[in-house]
Structure formats: C-alpha cells, structure tokens
Amino acid sequence: MRKSTLLLKLLSELSFALTWLALSLEVLLRRFSDKSIRITSKLMNLNSTQSHRFYKFIGKRIMPDRLTDRIVKNLHTNDITLQTSLASAIFLRNAYSSGVILPEWKINDKITGRRFAEALGLNVPAVYQENVRFENISLKNNIVIKPVDAAAARGVFIIKSPNRIIELRTGLSFDSTESLREHAKLLLEQKNVQKDLWTVEEFIENEKGHVANDLKFYTFYGKVGWISEIQRQPIMLHNTIDRDGNPVDYGLYKNNEMFIGEGASLEEIEMIERISCDIPVPYIRIDFLRGKKGLIFCEFTPRSGITGTVNRDMDLKYGKLFYEAEARLYNDLISGKSFDVFNHITKIS
Amino acid sequence: MYILYILSYPILWISLKIGDRIMKFSLLAMKLCHYTALRASKSNHKIYKLASYHLDARIFRYPAVKSMISQGIDVPASFSAALNLRSAYDKDKILPEWKICNKTSGPEFARLLGLQLPKQLSINLSFEEITPVENTVIKPLFGYYSRGVFIVKSKNEILELNTGKVFYKWEELTNYAHSLMSKKVVRSNIWKVEQYISDENGNPVTDIKFNLFYGTVGWIAEIKRHPEVRYNIMDGVGQTFNSELYAKKQLFPGMGTNENELDLLKKISLEIPVPFIRIDLMRGAGGLFFSEFTAYPGIIGLFDRKREHQYGKLYHEAETRLYNDLIAGKKFETFKQFTANA
C-alpha cells in the first residue's frame, strides 16, 4: 500500500475530511453543552442541594478553558479541583518563551549542568575529555563516550576494554576501536548525532559490573512527583514509583518490560527536593546513576521524551503538582529569593 | 425550578458523553490522517493547522508539537485555562494579584504607581452610617459588575450606575441597598464614599479597561453606562474590532485611546509582577482616574477559540518575560514598597 501514492493520497484526503467532520461536530456539541452548563449552573444557584454533585461532574469533565469565573468560584467553594495537564503545561511553557531562554534550558547543556550539580554538592562522574572530536578521543579502559548534544542515550558508548565496547541504546557491541570509529562516523552521517563533539567520562557500574541503573526524579520545585528507574543491562527494564515507593502506572510499558527495582531512600528523595528548590523552574527531571558509591549525577532534563504520552490520570495528577509548584516559585521570587548558585553558574557558562 | 434542573442535568450528561465519544473518534481519524499524510506528501501542514485550532495542547505528543512549531503553527493556548489554573492551584492565595485586587489596597498601590484617584471621603461604613452628600459616589467594598454603585447627584436624585435606576428618596435607596445585600449581590454591609467623577457635561464617565499582559496591551474595553450600557472593544493598539461577545446594538463608537495612554499603561503593567492584570480607569473631565485592579475578569470562559488562543499566547509570553525578569533580579520597587506598608 505504501507504494501506491494515489491510493495514499485518496486515503489521506478522506481521513482529513473525516477528522474535519468529527471536530466540527464536536464544536457544535460543545456550544450546546456550554449553554446547557450555564443554564444548569444558574438553576443550581437557586437549588443548592444538588449543586455539589453537579460541580463534581463539571470539574471532572470540563477542561478549564471552558469554565467561567462563576463556575470556577463554585468549584472552589465545593472543594473540587480543576482538570490540569502536565503535558500541556510543559508544551505551552516551551512554545511561548518569546525569545527568552528558559532557566531549565540553561542547565540542560551537559557541561553547565554538571558544573551546577557540583556546585549544589552532588557527586558527578570524573571527566577526562570535553568537547573533543571523535578522532581526538584518547581511548582507555572503563570510560563512557557521549555526544555533547545526546538525547535518549543515542551515540553513547561504554568502553570496558578495547575489545569490549557497547553502544548503550542499541546494545550493539564492537570488538575493536576501528569498528567503533566507523560506527560513530555513520551516526554522524545519518544525523543521529548532530555534532562531532564528545565528552569522555568515567564509567559508572553497579556491583555486578553492569551499567548502573538510571534513576530519574521528576521534581516540582521542592517536591518529587515520581521516580523512574531503568535497568539497561542485561536487558532494558523499567520501574516507575511515586514519592512513597508505590508503583505508578504510566500506561507506557508492558508487564514484561517492568521490574521491581531498588527505588530511592527517603534521605535521597529529601536531598533532591532540597536541591530542586535551588532551580528556579516549576518542573525539571534530574537524572542520576545508581553507582556502587551511591547516586551519581547525570543530567538535567527540561522536557522528557515521555511528555504527552503518559495516560490521562498521571497527566492530571502531575499537572496539579506543576501549577502548585509554579505558585510557590512565583511567591519565592517575588519575596526576593535570589537563586545565587544558579545565577552564578549560568552567568559564567 | 427543580423539574427544570432534573431535566437539564441529564441533557448535559448525554451531550458531554457524546462529546467524549466524538473526541475519541476524531483523535483516531486524526491519527490515520497524520499517518497517511506523512507518507503521501512531505507536508502535513493542513492536519496540524486543523488540530491546533480545535484541540488542547495536552492531546499532542512532543514530536507533533515540535512539527507545529517548526511549521509556524501555534501550539493551542487558552487564556481562560491559564487564568483558571493559576487561581485554582494557589490555594493559600499567595500570588501577588491578591494583594492589589481589592477595593482598599488597590487604590493605595495605584497612587504609588502615579495614577490619579478620585478623592476618598469615607471608608468602612455600614450603609446606615452614610449621609448623602452631593456629587459623591457610594460603593460597596465587596461587590462586582458595578452592582450597588450609587451616584448621589443631590439628596433627592440618586442613580444606580449599573441599572440606571433613579431614586428620589434616601429611604427608598436604603431599602434597595439592603435588598441587594440580602440577595448577596453585594456581599457585605461595608461601603465607601468617594468624589464623583463626571465627564464635561456632568454625566457619568465612561469606563476604560485595559487588559494588560506584563508590558503588552491585549485588548481594551470602553464602557459607557449612561443612559444605556454600550461597549467599544479595541485591540492592543486601540483599533476597534467587532467582538463576538456583544451584539451590534450594544456597541458605540467611543472615544478610544491614544499612544500616550497606551505607553503609560504598558509602563505601569511592568511594575506589577503578574502575567495578566486588568486596570480599570474612568475617563473624567480631568483625565484618567483609577478605579480598580482585576486579576480574574468575569469574561473568562466566554471567548471563542480564536480569542482564547490569541490571549492565551499573550499570557504565556508574558509569563516567561516576567519569570526571566524575576530570576535576573528585577526588584519591583513600587510593589515592594506597597507590600511593606500593607
């Protein structure tokens, strides 16, 4: 089917018309239900015995862009929270940054990020080389080579010895440095890695000699929302838990893709919450490796790849955390909190 | 009434359920369309444009958002959603707008910002304590939509601003004010009396409300209240446009605004550390007079999608600018001075 352009074109036009029809129908229906909400809400003001049930229903079903001031006030008095979405909060924050570089992107850069983490007192892996071209990397045992602009572990190589080299994302192994060089060249040609600039770091391993597990903390200015633990070797497995260690269902992974991991201790969580208060953003993901000697900082991720893919319940729950975090942050900023470490590090970078 | 309610609730329930179903269907149709469009041609511009007009940002995945941005299509924003969420998740009311959006502290802050104010004659009175004085205005401290605002032209001629009702006896007005309070249109028996600002002919002034997004003017509403309520809605540069919110017969040409006023208000809005604020002014014989700050206007949730998006975009842009200024250490001296006094 993919080869027949005409058929595809037809199908595409047809489904476009269908989408258009469905969306227009929805707009019509929306107009109708908006009116009926307004009428019902007016009646509610006269007959308050039923009103809690009504507002509970509205609060659950209607997104805040369709709520009027009066309904919001009533929701508030009935102690019903508004629908939120973490994905839309993050998308909108990034879409309309009007020429300003948002603070989270200032520390997304690997070098600045590590400097900042160090200044906050986190353990960071030793760095052997920075911003070098692939041909200039001096290869030795137990190192990790990462592209400077890496995303989703693309182009990350672990060199345990010259004949034991693995690409982290794909699990491909290379038995000589020549084949590694060739593969890196290919990645650059295919634009899987954008720039020929690399960082060479200490290899962090766990007790079994495997690549250490990733621990990603989704933090909301002083609060850890949830934690994602990823085992990369021998096979890739996921463990997602909330702040209290209870499993969370993203709706992203199948049962056989999950495992019961170590999670994080309360001390670790509290330490990360303290640190997140030094970053002037409502939301950021802080990534660590669980090495033999504890948590080793990896990077700051402003907008993770799963944004917009988690299920509605998670999106709603953590959307709330986003807006609450934003209110706390605003208040701190206006009261004159100065974020000295952040400003110092981002200015010199 | 109860019967009406019994009827209206299931209708609403059904229509929302159907809406959900259609939504699911249209998302599916869109997925198919997106899939085929990606392969049929290089451009899927059309489908993104349609989707961004109709759907919420939460529907999309990041690659779609990225494509939209790269194709110059705006990510769907919503002004009402932004404001509703801002207020809803600020349970302890710690945000700065709460400090200036009331009828006692608002004028104090406006004075610090250099705005002209009507002379305040007395405040925190119960209605019984008020004695009618010529050319004064009686206002409730906790009211909205200009209900319960009375212009005392003389002891025997008192006008309610919002409705145009005229009272010829003080007792008549007292009874009326109490009825407003018992109906909760006016929320408590606390009032203030201030100087009456009139236009050149002694008639009630027109209101001019600037909707400001931290350094940018979003839109302006000019409202004439006498003899009938009429509106003139302008965009950020003062050009009148046809607002979907008012019928033709509710509109009037208005006096508009000018470059100097726009500049002044932009400058003032940069002194208030919030992404959105409405500043209500009166156009009196002696120029513009401050009336009040409004953070959450009653018009929220009534816009059509186009305006929702347009103002939503302004909101998010303002938020980022403000944020950036705050992190860079902008001091907001006037606001600070005001909160220190309060």
Estimated share of beta-strand residues of chain B: 15-25%
> Largest sheet of chain A, order of strands side by side?
1-6-2-3-4-5
Assembly state here? heterodimer
What is the rounded distance between the termini of chain B?
46 Å
* Count of individual helical segments of chain A: 10
DSSP summary, beta strand count of chain B: 11
Helix share bin of chain A: 40-55%
What are the low-pLDDT stretches of chain B, counting only 5+ consecutive residues below 50? none
Overall mean pLDDT of chain A stands at: 86
What sequence of helices (H) and strands (E) makes up the elements of chain B? HHHHHHEEEEEHEEEEHEEHH
Shape of chain B: globular
**How large is the radius of gyration of chain B?**
24 Å
Textual characterization of the structure:
The complex is a heterodimer of chains A (349) and B (342). Chain A is an alpha+beta fold. In chain A, 41% of the residues lie in helices and 18% in strands. Chain A contains ten helices and eleven strands. In chain A, helix 1 packs antiparallel against helix 2, helix 4 crosses helix 9 and helix 6 runs antiparallel to helix 10. Chain B has ten helices and eleven strands. Chain B has a six-stranded antiparallel β-sheet. Chain B has a five-stranded antiparallel β-sheet with strand order 9-8-7-10-11. Chain B is globular. The interface between A and B is large, with 84 and 83 residues.
Features:
heterodimer; A: 349 residues; alpha+beta; 10 helices; 11 strands; globular; B: 342 residues; six-stranded antiparallel β-sheet; five-stranded antiparallel β-sheet
Write the layout of secondary structure elements.
The complex is a heterodimer of chains A (349) and B (342).
Chain A lengths: L4 H42 L4 H11 L7 H9 L8 H10 L7 H4 L3 H10 L7 E6 L10 E5 L9 E5 L2 E4 L5 E2 L2 H13 L8 E5 L10 E7 L4 E8 L5 E6 L23 H11 L7 E8 L2 E8 L10 H23 L5 H9 L1
Antiparallel strand pairs in A: 1-6, 2-3, 2-6, 3-4, 4-5, 7-8, 7-10, 8-9, 10-11
Helix pairs in contact in A: 1-2, 4-9, 6-10
Chain B lengths: L1 H39 L4 H10 L7 H9 L8 H10 L8 H4 L4 H8 L7 E6 L10 E5 L9 E5 L2 E4 L5 E2 L2 H13 L8 E5 L10 E7 L4 E8 L5 E6 L23 H11 L7 E8 L2 E8 L10 H23 L5 H9 L1
Antiparallel strand pairs in B: 1-6, 2-3, 2-6, 3-4, 4-5, 7-8, 7-10, 8-9, 10-11
